Amino acid sequence: MDIATIDISILESENISRDDVTSLKQKAYASVEEKDKLEKEVESLSQAIKNSRDAAKKKMLHQGLGIGLWLLGRTKEAVAALDEVKTRKIAAYYLGKCYEELGEYEKALECLERSRKDDEKEFDLEMDLVGVKRKAGMLKEALKRVEQLSKSYEQEAELHYQWGYCLEEAGEYVEAMSHYEKALELNPEHPGTLFRVAYNYDLEGEDDKAVEYYEKCESLSPIFINVYINLGTMYEDRGDYGKAVSCFETVLRVDPHNKKAGLYLKDAKAALNMHYDEERLRARDRESEVLNIPISDFELSVRSRNCLERMNITTLKDLTMVTEADLLSYKNFGETSLNEIKNVLAQKGLSLGQALNINRPFLGPPIGYTGEVGILENPLSALELSARTLKTLGKIGIGTVGELVSMSEEKLLSHKTFKNIYLEEVKEKLGLHGLKLKEQGD
Hints:
Layout: H1 18-28, H2 32-51, H3 55-71, H4 75-82, H5 89-101, H6 105-114, H7 123-135, H8 139-153, H9 157-169, H10 173-186, H11 191-203, H12 207-217, H13 225-238, H14 241-254, H15 259-272, H16 278-291, H17 302-310, H18 316-320, H19 324-328, H20 335-347, H21 387-396, H22 401-405, H23 409-413, H24 420-431
């Protein structure tokens, strides 16, 4: 049944099919009004169960209620309803989908296997099973099954999508991309493949290609929440605040309680409402160019150059973030080297310590820290931050744990690309190591 003709009351039918549910999901998320209808139908089914004394009818109502709750994203409630009728194949299938979303993959596999129809091969169900096995870390089994199915389903985009995803998880990125390309050749609008290609380009820093593929997902129904989250953050990084706001608002229309979208929307709106003086922006850009000039561009003595390298000072910006006392505290760095550095900065209208009100590089453990200093010298990757947060911190110029803890919350948030959601993640990860950001005023 297609989207135009399907009716919400199909949930009350004992003979509802997976195709019906797919069409219903697309229709429900096509507009706020249609989703409201689904929510009302779910409440109606819940009330009907309470009022009914007919055991057979109650089973049918539980099935419809469970599927409806799953469609609305109320997964745990859906499990409770579908568990009442888990011997039915259609109910077992959606119970399996619920367990998959909850990360209970063993139960998901059990339910999906139980939903098989004895008298026919179901390719879509086979792909569901492959996907769950991949998520459960059963890559060898998943790949083996995909290869077996390829003999009969070589021209199915979903097969190449699952094949590519398994290879990607196994670290075979070139082969994975080859299968993604084949999937898009067979179906240019295959949603899962478009997202994986976009996401991989995003991680690799190929922003233009990532945006191109994320935008191809925008016309798909139902919407991919992660598409709009990722695309919105990329728009914001580009300064396209209007588009970013639109992406986050789209997510919140579908999922009003999405905390991540709420935080991103707040940041994007704040950026959208800011009015920058053009001349100040141009001056800032010119200053940024100067500050990012590498030390290696200047003719320094071997002693000075070696000392700066040991201090991990590589740009003029780094020099503006230390004082004379900081430099002189290092072994073998004397007055001669100091004067040499001051002359270099003077050529560009800069001076030592002038940026101390903004931030300063890590020169030692934070006050009160009694743990091992070694963690502070580690790269940020030691904190296991998300790719997006790592990328943003890198753009700010923070590369080690020590440099991070020398920053305050206020200083991090003063960078327009650093969002509240990144801050919360940073605080959580630092806390796991007994660390915290610098207190304002320290």
